[in-house]
Amino acid sequence: MAANAQSLSEAIVKPRLSRDDWIMRASMIVIGAFLLVAVVLPLYSMMSKSMENKDGAFIGLANFYEYFSTPSLFLSGVNSLWVAALVTVIVLVTAFVYAYALTRTCMPFKWFFRLVAVIPLLAPSLLSGISLVYWFGNQGVAKELLMGESIYGPIGIVIGSAYWVFPHALMIVITALSITDARLYEAAAALRTSAIRTFFTVTLPGCKYGLISAGFVVFILVFTDFGVPKVIGGNFNMLATDIYKQVIGQQNFQMGAVVSVVLLVPAVIAFGVDRLVQKKQVALLSARAVPLEPKPNRRVDMLMLAFCSFVALLILLMIGMAQYAAIIKFWPYNLTLTLHNYNFDLANGGGWDAYFNSVKMATYTAVFGTLIVFFGAYLVEKGRGFNVGRNVFHGFAMLPLAVPGMVLGLSYIFFFNNPSNPFNFIYGTMIILVVSTVAHFYTVSHLTAVTALKQMDAEFESVAASLKTPFYKTFLKVTVPVCLPATMDIFIYLFLNAMTTVSAVVFIYSTDTQLASVAVLNMDDQGELSFAAAMAMMIAYTCAGARLLHLLLTRGVMRSSQAWRQR
Amino acid sequence: MTSNSYLRISNLSKKFGEFEALKNISLDVYESEFVCFLGPSGCGKTTLLRAIAGLDIQTTGRIEQAGKDISALPPSERDFGIVFQSYALFPNLTVERNVAFGLENRGMARAKIRERVTELLDVVGLPDQGRKYPAQLSGGQQQRVALARALATSPGLLLLDEPLSALDARVRARLRLEIKQLQQKLKVTTIMVTHDQEEALTMADRIVVMDHGVIRQVGAPRDIYAAPSSAFVADFIGTMNFLAGRVAGDGVVEVRGTPFRCDTADIPPGEEVTLSIRPEDVILCNGDADVVNGLDTVVRYVEFLGPFCRVGLASDVFEDGEVCADLSSNMMRERTIEQDAPLKVRFPENLVRVFPARS
Amino acid sequence: MNPTSFLTRAIGGLCGAAFALGATGAFAATELTVYTAIEADDLKRYAEEFNKVHPDIEIKWVRDSTGIVTAKLLAEKENPQADIVWGLAATSLMLLKAEGMTEPYNPAGADKLNKRFVDTDSPMHWTGMDAWVAAICVNTIEAEKNNLPMPTTWKDLIDPVYKGHVVMPNPNSSGTGFLDVSSWLQLYGEEGGWEFMDALHENIAWYTHSGSKPCRQAGAGEAPIGISFAYRGAKVKAQGAPIEIVIPSEGAGWDMEATAIIKGTDNLDAAKKLADFSVSKEANVMYNTVYAVVAYPGVAQPVEHYPSNIDELMIDNDFGFAASNRERILKEWQSRYDSKSEPQG
Hints:
The structure holds three protein chains of three kinds. By secondary structure, chain A is mostly helical.
């Protein structure tokens, strides 16, 4: 009997999997395979391409040697670095003060400033470049302000980039400033600490992780952006425009791959550091804090009002000029107003079809992307066992954030346009655009979903299992309704980005699947600036409409679920 | 083998990497019994419950429920209802639909489901709350709903994971009585995990005291209180005074030179031991008469606790520590007991326990 | 834009979004995938003319700028998507020919074309359509404002008076830019050519990525002088831009739009029919509505806004030289001018 018990105790119990476990694992493998095909394998084929010569033979790092010994190309790298760094500093300071005004002061008209701040998200990054030409170009209305300097070059790139990345930084800093503990300020006040000292000992340290994170996001966005330097960069070369020139201008795919790898490295480093920083912040957040209610301070409030008004004015001037440019007959010689520029079928670069393709593409991306991302995040977060699979999946889901769009787009050419690839059939179709866009914006959506899921009671699944309810029923009856606001946020995030993205899709669109954002790029490339401005504004109207709809729907959902949603 | 053992756990171990959360646990739970797993946090009680539920399956060992080996089964193929500390009520479903959740899946007719839900809500004392959402109920009410939901499918085993810990003291006291009565009425075999000894003492038919992944003692509340098998159990359940000493001979333990008569069982002379006595077992002595285990002490403090006072006593024998004595208010009225006053007390021989010295 | 058609499209777009991905309905007898760089507003007209002769063949246009179409064709080398290329720079087609991607075929009537417009091999790999001639677009208003004399020759442009007023396409990303560079190297010889460009570089305000842009920018006064091509100049002028189109008297580089069948096409017969049509007289008349110089002798009528002497000023372009030295020239250009293209302060 004793010997028997001993042998029993040593047999390791192999848990039997339920039908749910099988379905969940199979689903996770399917979505994991999607990410493998949509992100990992294309990147691999791009890396191997960077070590091949024109005939496809392996030549090790010879291409990289050539790249770094070409002074003009090397210079592009240096340019990209300092421009990105400068924009990061400018945007961080601006976004911090703006966010401070919104969260920590009693400045009036906050709603207005919140609204204005998101405007740059509604249009492709190219819009700021176009607008700057009209403001500060050689025929620009405010050319004198530059005191003889040319807008075509780093000045234009810095201003244009700062404009479109501003909301990205602002949202992160607002979040960072919102999660403070009022008790810290009460303690500081009780100790009669001066306002300035409080700022440096409480406020800044409290949001330092948010600022670091925002810094990295801005840096990566500018470092890898292609739209602004393409439009307003003049002769100022940057890495992202180099890729374009290598691939489109010279059909030098190998060198394009090399530049892509060079572009990938700092992005991956910045991404890695940011993840480390984020982990630290989670620990800080867990404390239960008392929300801070700002107190009126007339001088500070008015100062902030002046500052925010100035920033908001700049944003409005930027988009306003693009709108004006879109309805001018022939700049600068014939300023009569016309809708002629909306007649996109007359312009090279994509007609109205491109616009409707974009709407379709964005809709597909939002619908399928939300389904895939949310279900994938659910499997990672709520699945039982299978830790290896869940960790690998999570890793795959985090990867796209580190991959610049251009790099992803170029790698798609290498991977999907290979006749021996079984997925070759999607090349040149709408599918590849949707796949690339979902993949490109996967990480942020995934994290949004994971955050929402984490806020749900961890034991729902256990309870449902004890009640012998299949997981998908619980998923549909409970998880989805509870997370509806988060899924709607993912939906709109994917939709807006799909409408405005240029970088990934510029390499893989086909004539059947021309896109509005790419059309803006091509129209500008041809010098048809007024058409480009009109198309960019079409995108902006659409995105604004989508956001408004999202706002109304979210309110509706919140109202109808008010009875059971706490807080 | 006992014929009415409902749940049999044999040689169960659970490892998380290098950490051994459960070490070779064996336990029988009988039909209709209310068992409490009691222990400090990290003792493995919740791990054991989750292994029984199949939520975190053990590394080695066997679990049988109603004669069937369920060791490797997923939770959905086991027969239990569960209630968590967090209630885990589905926030977007009404109370009714929460309770009906497990029933809706079994092809039961709508009318039947409604009937059963009404019955259950009556049983847990929430007959009119069916249309509300969980967020509109108090914590205690929510936990009743969770209980009704767990019982809806008439499971053979009810698992309660710290069900009362999130509630405030009054609600907790009332609900623990109700749960106990409900369990007795329904005769459902129940296992509850708790770190609260009072809860365990009041509710359980049997208590399983756990520490560091092993079972330290199993027994009825009274037996465990009266006869703890180890210093750990003695300390964890109720309050206990401990004095370090050495066995001087059969029936005598010396504490700092002072001999105490007590049952030394078969511990050989010379062994280091721990002498223990509960505060309520310390007895006041009258006069100077020489008594067995009598001791002159000085009152350090008097703590008024309503029906009784806790008195801290100092003596050379206790070194730096104190011995607490719980003296009933009745007894106190007869004498003046003040701070710094001398007081003679006695440790009754049959109530002093000796344990091997704690490592 | 017609509001009704906008509405129909809007509804169509939204409905389309509701359908499954990639669902396309094809019903024409033969669908021919045609890669092209022809201007978007000419495409419809070209297809209509072709369908007058061959109503059973439906053209599916894949249109983009010269560089992108070329890149796309090369990228798809292993698995070509195009049946035929109609309206792409001949130099690009020569590149495809060198890669073995073109189907040799003598279109019916190709023998009638001007010899400098067709491939010298027999059977031919490509046949020309029309010439695409380098030109200088000069904004008369801005020139006056800046006291710039009207240039008449390439060499005029290196006069310091034009410093910072000239825009030209970057040959590394624009076919027009390369055409300019290769023509200067042919006109002035290797050494003289680079000397000229060194001097010109001093006057260049910025290099653009596309060949059209300098002329459009000249038209908008963004830069007074844009080195571009005559076709673009004529179009910009037609829009009402205050520009003069100058073909430099030394002679101008040129390329042609041309046609080539892609090897391995599943629709070889239909592709041949299109190739035949592309060299026909009717087609050349059609090209002539926007291009002043076409491949079919005797067809060309003067086109509005084009300089009249354009035909004589086309240099005797050695396409072989351009194609075989392309990589070397681009590299040289890049090391000379791209590395210097730092911010001017």
